[in-house]
Specification:
The complex is a heterodimer of chains A (about 550) and B (about 500).
Chain A: H1 5-21, H2 28-46, H3 49-55, E1 63-66, E2 82-84, H4 86-105, H5 114-133, H6 137-146, H7 148-158, H8 163-196, H9 203-209, H10 220-238, H11 247-254, H12 257-282, H13 284-288, H14 290-312, H15 317-337, H16 341-372, H17 383-386, H18 388-402, H19 408-423, H20 425-450, H21 467-485, H22 488-506, H23 529-541
Antiparallel strand pairs in A: 1-2
Helix pairs in contact in A: 1-2, 1-5, 2-4, 2-5, 4-5, 4-12, 4-16, 4-21, 5-6, 5-7, 5-12, 6-8, 7-8, 8-10, 8-11, 10-12, 11-15, 12-15, 12-16, 14-15, 14-20, 15-16, 15-19, 15-20, 16-18, 16-19, 16-21, 16-22, 18-20, 18-21, 19-20, 19-21
Chain B: H1 8-13, H2 15-33, H3 40-66, E1 74-76, E2 81-83, H4 85-111, H5 117-135, H6 139-157, H7 164-195, H8 200-213, H9 218-235, H10 243-250, H11 253-278, H12 283-306, H13 311-333, H14 340-366, H15 383-386, H16 388-402, H17 408-422, H18 426-452, H19 465-483, H20 486-496, H21 502-508
Antiparallel strand pairs in B: 1-2
Helix pairs in contact in B: 2-3, 2-5, 3-4, 3-5, 4-5, 4-11, 4-14, 4-19, 5-6, 5-11, 6-7, 6-11, 7-8, 7-9, 7-10, 8-11, 9-11, 10-11, 10-13, 11-14, 12-13, 12-18, 13-14, 13-17, 13-18, 14-16, 14-17, 14-19, 14-20, 16-18, 16-19, 17-18, 17-19
Classes of the chains: A mainly alpha (about 550), B mainly alpha (about 500).
């Protein structure tokens, strides 16, 4: 069990989906029970990982590695190679938790084609977990793309009135980004071969060679920058960063509640995870370049402010929450591109926070929607009189989302802003209004929906939360308070991978010296000479023309 | 060309071809004897014929394994024919495509009241033609094979005598096909005139000599262009593609499926044979032409497919688009030196395409019942309600066509783009992947109709057992190749004479 824990976590939902295939589709209750058992089982089985990982939290490198490089398709060097570090560990737990909660939340919301719904949902769960676990680029790409299909169907079949448009838009946007990433992956793959003579997609192997493209005379900074952008589009569309965000409101508004929870809670994190896992270690010199970094920061700040301003204007609750995601994810990318360990660990923590809070916000909207079948803010008012428990939970979650101290959002945003200020106080100053605006749109929403007297007669008889619905909020509340009150364990888990990443980015690679003025002296006190010395070797020994394998 | 006499080996090497011919003639005779209600015997006989022919190919393959230096292939029939790994691979491909097409046809032809024995006889005869094309080393044999295949297909396209669309499609196909064959024959005759030989190897040598004397030999260029016109017509590349949508739409759906995989694969076998074996010295002329053609093909086909409302036409344009991607593999494979990854891409593409495209056409074929023709996009509406298994399989085929991993279609695209990156064609690679996003859009249109549309008819869709078998084979191959591609990549490595990536082997141990 200990050795195969990741595979077990990864395939539990898939097994559930296969089991469901054999249940007759008329038997809806049985289908619901089985799906919930497997979703809860998937969560419970990921819990032993916590103590096991905790014991290893300061060890360097990836843990719980399974499989080997090149064991899946040896002829191209693709392997079933999975493993985790602190960053993916937290995201995996978030995924299993939110997966269970979303499946629980669908109990009464989904009435038609129940079997398919749960089958696709469980497949989606496996796809998402695979993305966070894969240490082989090929495997990663397979999960990254395969996961689009169930999400597309979830939006397209069980979505709202404009579901077809939203589903296709979601699929096309994401695919358009990821095909360019495929080309980028292939380039790194061949580059690795020319340096080492080995064809492999293994991530750790590519970590060694990819940063050398920048200083390689055969390719140089231009190619490295192009490659960075090939990856950037895939991740930026997924996050979504500012100009690429247009698919998000459509997909969120049309998706069923559980789909929105997963979309906001987990899918968006794949983009930020991609930046952290791939862009940072692969292209440190590109990222530290003033222009590129300036653009990344600018896009993040625009997303923060723009998302918040657009949220203020929304008449539809779900759309409001969707745009607030754009704003919150802006904070996450800001933390990443601050390129220091404070900002980066804040960013990862904020990703978890966003999954918890925004996931909860979508559930909150879903609860009302299930009762009234409308999400128009104007339809509501005075709900706290008829649904007191619901109103309390909503208040806590709103406060957590806007970043009130003692709740999780505060810790994340504060750390990100701290990291940003350490780099450049202006960046931080531009981002801070986002926090204020978040308070504005959320509190205003709360006021309009919950306070006052019940003006709409349809709202007088609304039923408060059922035990099942309370159950799905409880874990989220626990985590929200936990992170808010005692975030230390989370930062400890993140410490090793984040420091490692920042060290790699901040240590001058060969040829990266021209960006030295960007680096804060306080941050680059711990130089790792290994990368620089390796780069030196490579630029001399490299053959000029790529050698072709085999002959006809 | 040592011995000018036939010996027993010649016949063993031609065994798959001879067996198919015998069975084709046999079907014609048996058809006369059996009563109308037992016409399924014809399909059965054809399947047995395919089985015997497969056994013949197996025999050759076994022979190759045990004979030293046989990887270059066996020459047969006085050097006009060569049975090498390339040919064997294509033999298998044709036979697999034909077997699935036969299974798909049984019910469809019954519904159309056209279940004559000639149908299966023609199908087998066209495979005979294809095999001649794949194993031909002599332009005369290749041309004869081409015509045998083409004429059989013309008749198959027009097989629904009472259907005007079918007749119109056949007529268009015949006129354009004959025209292109004429140009092709003209090109071949010029090649013969220039080089004085009809053998591809001879042409290769002579052409190399001629081009060293005059690198821009005008007649050679005319010959090349005329030959390429014929070749590109057969694989339906833009701008020689206009016949494809019409013929695909009008033909009986099972024939469309057959044409889109087997006939297309034969066209590719011929194209690769002539360009790589015969006209390789002229690659500096034909590679730029192919760059133009592949860009035009991807652009034209993808844009045209976006607006189609007829599923057969849509899949016709999609299959044209796939030709565009495969041509990219040929370009990448021929940049400086022969780059095996490009050819690997084409061959894997053809392999997976056979299954996924036939599967997609199979589902459309099964929509035909009683009064419904079933080839409009609206006919797919709500297919999930009426036939859940078929709908899910269709989704698999469509996603595979779009190149979504982990389905088989992904590996075709993967190797093509891999080879493009390897040979430094970054712009072409970017263009190709962006067009594959276009592709997803029109495949999703079909998926939308199936899963999110409302069915226009009540009741479950009746699907025959033979069709179920065909779909099961196609779906199994699509998924299995997708998840466990190693063996199939190995097949193409074997075909190209490449050993397994040694560096990876090192990494593993």
């Amino acid at each position: 069990m200990y050795n195969h824990i990741l595979s077990i976590i990864l395939f539990t939902p898939l097994v559930g989906a296969i089991v469901l295939l054999f249940v007759p589709r008329e038997n809806k209750e049985a289908i619901r029970w089985i799906a919930n058992i497997f979703a809860l089982g998937g969560f419970l089985i990921s819990l032993p990982l916590i103590p096991w990982f905790w014991a290893l939290r300061f060890e360097p490198g990836f843990k719980f590695i399974e499989g080997a490089a090149g064991n899946w398709i040896p002829s191209i060097g693709a392997g079933y190679l999975i493993g985790i570090d602190g960053i993916s560990f937290l995201l995996i737990l978030l995924t299993t938790l939110l997966g269970w909660i979303s499946i629980l939340s669908s109990w009464t919301a989904i009435e038609n084609r129940v079997k398919e719904y749960y089958v696709w949902f469980l497949i989606l769960q496996t796809g998402m977990l695979g993305v966070f676990m894969a240490l082989d680029f090929f495997l990663f790409f397979v999960f990254w793309e395969a996961m689009l299909v169930p999400m597309y169907l979830l939006i397209g079949i069980w979505g709202g009135p404009r579901k077809l448009y939203a589903a296709i838009k979601f699929f096309l946007y994401t695919l358009a980004g990821s095909v360019l990433m495929l080309l980028g992956i292939l380039f790194l793959y061949f580059h690795h071969h020319t340096l080492t003579g080995v064809y492999t997609f293994s991530l750790t192997a590519l970590y060694d060679t990819a940063p050398k493209i920048y200083s390689d005379p055969a390719y140089g900074p231009t190619i490295a920058t192009l490659l960075f952008f090939a990856f950037f589009f895939a991740f930026a569309i997924k996050v979504p960063m500012f100009p690429f965000h247009t698919w998000l409101p459509d997909a969120h508004v049309e998706a069923p509640t559980a789909g929105s929870v997963i979309l906001a809670g987990v899918l968006l994190k794949m983009g930020t995870y991609g930046f952290i896992r791939f862009s940072l270690p692969f292209f440190p010199d590109v990222l530290t370049h003033t222009k590129v970094r300036g653009w990344m920061i600018a896009l993040s700040i625009i997303a923060i402010i723009y998302g918040a301003l657009v949220s203020l204007m929304q008449k539809d609750m779900k759309k409001l929450v969707a745009y607030s995601s754009v704003s919150h994810l802006g904070f996450c990318t800001l933390g990443i591109f601050a390129l220091n360990s404070v900002g980066l660990s804040g960013s990862v923590l904020q990703q978890i926070n966003h999954g918890i809070s925004t996931g909860a916000l979508f559930l909150i909207v879903g609860v009302l929607y299930e009762r009234r079948h409308t999400r128009e803010i104007a339809e509501y008012g005075g709900i706290s009189n008829v649904m007191p428990v619901y109103a309390t939970i909503t208040m806590i979650m709103f406060l957590s989302s806007m970043g009130l101290p003692l709740l999780n959002g505060f810790v994340g945003e504060f750390t990100i802003l701290q990291g940003t200020f350490m780099e450049n106080w202006r960046w931080g100053a531009w981002a801070v209004p986002g926090v204020v605006l978040a308070a504005a749109y959320l509190l205003w929403l709360y006021q309009r929906v919950f306070f006052g007297t019940v003006t709409n007669p349809k709202n007088e008889k609304l039923q408060d939360l059922t035990p099942r619905e309370v159950l799905m909020f409880v874990p989220l509340l626990i985590v929200a308070f936990w992170i808010g009150l005692y975030p230390k364990p989370f930062f400890q888990i993140l410490e090793q991978p984040v420091n490692q990443l920042v060290q790699n980015v901040r240590t001058p690679q060969a040829g990266g010296a021209m960006n030295a003025e960007l680096r804060q002296p306080s941050q680059s006190n711990t130089p790792v000479l290994q990368a620089a010395s390796e780069a030196k070797v490579s630029s001399e020994d490299r053959p000029v023309t790529p050698s072709m394998k085999g002959n006809r | 060309m040592g011995a000018f006499a036939y010996n027993w080996n010649d016949y063993v090497l031609a065994l798959p071809i001879l067996l198919l011919t015998l069975f084709a003639i046999g079907i014609l005779l048996i058809d006369l004897m059996i009563p109308p209600e037992t016409k399924w015997v014809n399909a059965m006989t054809a399947l047995i014929g395919v089985g015997f022919s497969t056994a013949g190919v197996l025999k050759i393959q076994f022979w190759m394994k045990t004979t030293p230096y046989a990887h270059i292939g066996f020459q047969a029939m006085m050097g006009t024919m060569i049975v090498d790994r390339f040919a064997v691979f294509f033999f298998y491909l044709f036979l697999a495509g034909t077997a699935i097409s036969i299974l798909m046809s049984v019910r469809y032809m019954q519904t159309e009241h056209e279940n004559h024995g000639e149908y299966y006889a023609l199908m087998l005869l066209s495979v005979v033609g294809m095999m001649c094309m794949a194993s031909g080393m002599d332009i005369v044999l290749i041309f004869i094979g081409l015509e045998l295949m083409a004429i059989s297909t013309y008749v198959l396209v027009g097989f629904l005598r009472r259907d005007r669309r079918s007749n119109e499609a056949a007529l268009k196909y015949i006129l354009l096909g004959a025209f292109s064959s004429g140009i092709f024959a003209y090109g071949l005759s010029l090649l013969y005139g220039l080089t004085g030989t009809t053998n591809l190897v001879g042409i290769n040598h002579e052409m190399g000599r001629i081009l060293t004397q005059n690198p821009h030999h005008p007649v050679a260029i005319v010959a090349l262009l005329a030959t390429m016109t014929g070749l590109l017509f057969k694989v339906a590349a833009v701008p020689f593609h206009q016949w494809a949508p019409d013929a695909y739409e009008g033909a009986p759906t099972c024939v469309t499926g057959f044409m889109s995989v087997a006939v297309k694969a034969a066209g590719w076998a011929m194209l690769l044979r002539i360009l790589l074996w015969g006209l390789y010295p002229m690659r500096s002329f034909w590679v730029p032409v192919l760059v133009f053609v592949s860009i035009a093909t991807m652009t034209g086909a993808n844009f045209a497919a976006l607006t189609q409302t007829n599923t057969k036409r849509l899949l016709a344009y999609s299959s044209i688009a796939h030709v565009g991607y495969m041509l990219l593999g040929l370009i990448a494979g021929t940049k400086y030196e022969l780059n095996p990854d490009g050819y690997k891409g084409i061959l894997i593409y053809l392999l997976v395409y056979t299954f996924m495209n036939l599967g997609a056409f199979g589902v459309i074929t099964s929509l035909r019942h009683r009064k419904v023709i079933g080839d409009e996009l609206d006919d797919l509406n709500g297919l999930y309600e009426r036939a859940p298994v078929e709908a899910v399989l269709m989704l698999l085929f469509l996603l595979s066509l779009a190149g979504i991993p982990p389905l088989a279609g992904f590996y075709g695209k993967y190797f093509i783009f891999l080879s493009l990156i390897e040979s430094g064609h970054y712009a072409l690679a970017s263009l190709g992947v962006l067009y594959s996003v276009f592709g997803l859009y029109y495949y999703l249109k079909m998926a939308n109709a199936m899963f999110m549309g409302q069915p226009e008819e009540e009741g479950r869709l009746p699907v025959s057992w033979s069709m179920r078998t065909a779909l099961a084979i196609a779906a199994f191959a699509t998924v299995f190749i997708g998840i466990m591609p190693e063996r199939f990549i190995g097949i193409t490595d074997w075909l190209l004479g490449i050993t397994r990536n040694p560096s990876v082997a090192q990494l593993m141990h």
